[in-house]
């Protein structure tokens, strides 16, 4: 009986790694042993940064909401407390978008928050 080799599988595996390493500089994209390490590290960065991206966007939304709220005389924490008391069910992503693109609509929400804060005090 003839001996079975793993050449087809090995070539496919190496081809897959080298395809993922396309665009890397120097031997990182052409040498299998080096490319395998770089691709593994790249996938680790991708996994980690999918979580970091969510963190960064939340921080950006908070900054935009804070800037919009301060234009109307409220801090971010006062504004968020006011809209919770007013029962406004908008998340930070939508509020940040309103603060940037629809200042009149954001002003109406700020007025609701101020009314809720004044009525509770």
Features:
about 120 residues; mainly alpha; c-terminal domain of poly(a) binding protein
Textual characterization of the structure:
By secondary structure, the chain is an all-alpha fold. The protein has a single domain, classed as Orthogonal Bundle (c-terminal domain of poly(a) binding protein). Helices cover 77% and strands 0% of the residues. The chain contains 5 helices and no strands. α3 crosses α5. The radius of gyration is 26 Å and the shape is rod-shaped. The model has no long low-confidence stretch (mean pLDDT 94).
Q: What is the helix content?
A: over 70%
Multimeric state: single chain
User: How many structural units, i.e. domains?
Assistant: 1
- N-to-C series of helices and strands: HHHHH
CATH superfamily: Ribosomal protein L20, C-terminal domain
CATH class: Mainly Alpha
Distance between the termini: 89 Å
Please report the total strand number as a whole number.
Answer: 0
Short note summarizing the structure:
With 121 residues, this protein is mainly alpha-helical.
Secondary-structure map with pairings?
Blueprint: H1 7-20, H2 32-71, H3 76-86, H4 92-101, H5 103-120
Helix pairs in contact: 1-2, 2-4, 3-5, 4-5
């Amino acid at each position: 009986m003839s001996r079975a080799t793993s050449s087809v599988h090995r070539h496919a595996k190496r081809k897959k790694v080298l395809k993922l390493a396309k665009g890397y500089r120097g031997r990182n994209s052409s040498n299998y042993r080096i490319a395998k390490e770089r691709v593994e590290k790249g996938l680790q960065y991708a996994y980690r940064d999918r979580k970091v991206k969510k963190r960064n966007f939340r921080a950006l939304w908070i900054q935009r909401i804070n800037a919009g709220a301060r234009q109307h005389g409220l801090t971010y924490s006062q504004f968020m407390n006011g809209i919770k008391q007013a029962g406004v069910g908008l998340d930070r992503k939508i509020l940040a978008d309103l603060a940037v693109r629809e200042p009149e609509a954001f002003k109406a929400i700020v007025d609701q928050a101020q009314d809720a804060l004044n009525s509770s005090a």
